[in-house]
Design a protein that fits this description.
The protein is an alpha/beta fold and 528 residues long. 36% of the residues lie in helices and 15% in strands.
């Protein structure tokens, strides 16, 4: 089946829905919003802490937020991208409020601002401790009501369409590669449909499922990055994988791991060993409020030194009623496994959380492929550099959705549907009855990445990961050519592609910088 939409948006988090709402409001065409599960299952909904924006001008300003972002990013961040996001953040917050998103306010009617690690001021807007869920709720409500947006739930994008599918050889040196839409798997018919578009947007989220333990939902398999890379788009900063220092440690609970928000350390939480000893003073003068890469490596170091499977976060010294008020969901979750956070330490462990690299885009969110934009976690805007500053990701998605919407609307009349695109051809393929092979390979990718491409790396570990992933790649590509496209084998292909890219670009960076920490190029005296 061939479908035609002026705007094709793949992904339904804050980035994809913000973009869809803005282009739909222009009246310039129809919008397809494709999500591989339901509209509400996205990384956005898992974000607890909040969204960063300068709002209290009595003590805060743009230059402070810019400097905090540059410091956290180890000065690899693109200054133009940082300034664009920071200076447009307040307008982005206003748009979210107009779409029905609620942020907590204090008794004076002003936003109740939190402070998180790496921030010099209180500038984190939030909704209790489920900010992402509230943003997702507000946007979903607006998207579902909009008559120009057609939602395709449980649809899986297999490949984006370029000149390659017209029989033209496309390499990384080919000028003017263009995107004409995407091939999308329909779960009901089990057929791959052709979605033709004038503009295509990848907003597919992160890569967490590539690791054995992650705070991301299982759907975060790096689909957009892998599709763009196969289409010969530029990807960048793939080595910068952020591990959140404090995921809840609970034996027997699989991913997604439950996140203990950064805001809890901003609130006054102290990291301790299980025996009560504080340890962050050995690593950074900012103690428990140091940037995430420093805190994650410090915890990793202490766990290895003492043979521990976790450390602890302590908020027992804080007012119990205030703790329950600020963190109701964390309180409830911990209580469900026998931990009263007002009286007991919270067992925590570092866990893959966010991805700073991805599809390289310009200030308009446009990739190196014409008519193809990338937004949110699958994109590399340059904002995060070597390490994301806490709560900068949601506002990045909102701001770049606006710039991409504006840019694509300015150019939409220059594009037309490409009627020469062939339909998906799976003639001669068969149903894959070897599901066990795919399931086992998915586990193996996670084990390889966690063991060899984790918080602390070395050339030896990275080369070992490369060799293992290369073998999996050959086996999977051979299987993919023989069987009909299904979501599970497509996700496995994407995971292998992303794991390979992270490993390759980690090997290429001959230094410890930001989130990339290697024993072959040590940066600190307390190397693991």
């Amino acid at each position: 089946m061939i479908r035609k939409f002026d705007f094709l948006v793949i992904g339904s988090g804050v980035a994809g829905m913000s973009y869809a709402l803005q282009v739909a409001a222009s009246g310039k065409g129809k919008v397809a919003l494709v999500c591989k599960t339901t509209l509400d299952e996205a990384n956005t909904a898992k974000a607890q802490g909040g969204i960063a924006s300068v709002t209290n001008l009595e003590v805060d300003n743009f230059e402070k937020h810019i400097e905090d972002t540059m410091i956290a990013g180890d000065y690899i961040s693109d200054p133009a991208a940082v300034r664009q996001v920071v200076e447009n953040a307040p307008a982005g917050i206003r748009r979210l409020v107009e779409w029905g998103v609620n942020f907590d306010k204090n008794a004076d009617g002003n936003f109740d601002l939190h402070r998180e690690g790496g921030h010099s001021e209180f500038r984190i807007l939030h909704h209790a401790d489920d900010t992402g869920f509230e943003i997702q709720r507000g946007l979903m409500q607006a998207v579902r009501k909009h008559p120009r947006i057609k939602i395709f739930e449980h649809h899986f994008a297999v490949e984006i369409i370029t000149q390659h599918h017209l029989g033209i050889e496309v390499t990384r040196r080919t000028p003017d590669i263009e995107c004409y839409g995407a091939y999308v798997l329909d779960p009901d018919t089990k057929k791959v449909d052709t979605f033709l578009s004038k503009v295509t947007v990848l907003a597919t989220g992160g890569i967490g499922a590539v690791y054995a333990q992650t705070t991301n939902p299982e759907i975060a398999t790096g689909d957009g990055i892998a599709m763009a890379y196969r289409a010969k788009a530029t990807v960048q900063d793939m080595e910068f994988v952020q591990f959140h220092p404090t995921a809840l440690y609970h034996q027997g609970e699989s991913h997604p791991a439950y996140l203990i928000t950064e805001a809890m350390r901003g609130y006054g939480g102290i990291l301790r060993l299980p025996n009560g000893a504080e340890f962050m003073h050995k690593y950074d003068k900012r103690l428990s409020l140091a940037p995430r890469d420093i805190v994650a490596r410090a915890i990793d170091r202490e766990m290895k030194r003492h043979g521990l499977d976790h450390v602890c976060l302590d908020v027992t010294h804080k007012d119990a009623e205030e703790t329950r008020h600020h963190f109701p969901n964390i309180y409830k979750k911990c209580l469900s496994i026998g931990i009263d956070i007002t009286k007991d330490y919270i067992p925590v462990v570092p866990c893959q959380h966010y991805f700073c690299g991805g599809i390289k885009v310009d200030l308009n969110g446009l990739s190196s492929i014409n008519r193809l934009y990338a937004l949110g976690e699958c994109s590399c805007t340059g904002l995060h550099g070597g390490n994301r500053l806490a709560s900068n990701s949601l506002i990045e998605a909102v701001v770049y959705a606006e710039t991409a919407a504006r840019h694509s609307l300015e150019h939409i009349d220059e594009y037309s549907f490409n009627s020469k695109v062939p339909e998906w051809n799976d003639e001669g393929t068969m149903t894959n009855d070897e599901k066990v092979l795919v399931a086992q390979d998915v586990k193996e990718v996670g084990q390889i990445m966690s063991a060899y491409v984790g918080i602390v790396r070395s050339d030896l570990r990275l080369h070992r990961a490369w060799e293992r992933l290369d073998l999996l790649y050959e086996e999977t590509e051979e299987l993919f050519k023989r069987v009909k496209a299904t979501r599970d084998i497509c996700e496995l292909r994407n995971m292998i592609n992303v794991g390979y890219l992270i490993t390759r670009q980690a090997l290429e960076r001959k230094e410890s910088r930001g989130l990339h920490y290697t024993l072959d190029y040590p940066k600190h005296a307390y190397d693991n």
